[in-house]
């Protein structure tokens, strides 16, 4: 029962989104079948923009349905990370005081103390010190963009995903607003704040398990297997960023940057070779390893 309660926002959001998209698809068919009128001309001349508007409206409708849940979970998430920071800061202060009392003159005390304050650990990679959180957020954002572009290019070059991104009748400004900013914002609120937060609250599962399960749900949400695997990996990076920094804005910026970078390459017609794509992946994984070392 607790697991089902944790999934309520996810299930509601998915069902309403699918229903809204079906409704807009039906309306679009009616407009096209009419064969005349302002909307018909717009849909014929700007099919990409029409789809983007329908996507934005569908996401908005689904988001409004779960907004009450999201607000509650956002408050809980903020309180959780505030409590973790306060407890972590207190523990670090106590450890420092104990260390000073036990061995105040030891030569390597300062070095060992710096290592200890890098991270306060219960069952989470959360970083207590703001400077480390900022550094981790920047590194994770770079890693996410590199991994995102690398995976997408490998998919495209290997023929796993055929056809690429359809940009016909799609304006760069509208695509950036809808696919680069709005949908990432909604998805981060629903999946990272609400779904992940509720998994922690309702199931009382460990942080790593809840992170993996929320990433799995994010992958399932994106449909087919190739996109699902890609989304699951990126979803894990986004929730890892949230857990390390305690800031929703970090996960949102990562998601938005990945989408915007992909759109930029598509609109500019920039093709990435296989060696370059593999280099992106290597750099992304090395950067991720650096972040995990920072969290030790």
Please provide a written account of the structure:
The chain is mainly alpha-helical and 296 residues long. It has one domain (2-99, 127-294). It is 82% helix and 0% strand. It has 11 helices and no strands. The protein has helices at residues 2-34, 38-45, 47-65, 67-102, 109-116, 130-158, 172-203, 207-221, 225-245, 248-268, 274-294. The longest helix is centred in the N-terminal third of the chain and has 36 residues, at 67-102. Residues 113-123 have low confidence and may be disordered.
Short recap of the structure:
The protein is mainly alpha-helical and 296 residues long. The protein has eleven helices and no strands.
The largest pleated sheet is described as: none
Distance between the termini: 35 Å
Spans of at least 5 consecutive residues whose pLDDT stays below 50 are: 113-123
What spatial form do the alpha-carbon principal axes imply? Answer: globular
What share of the residues does DSSP label as strand, in percent? under 5%
Rg, nearest Å? 22 Å
Mean pLDDT: 84
| SSE class | mainly alpha
Separate helix tally = 11
Number of strands: 0
Helix and strand run? HHHHHHHHHHH
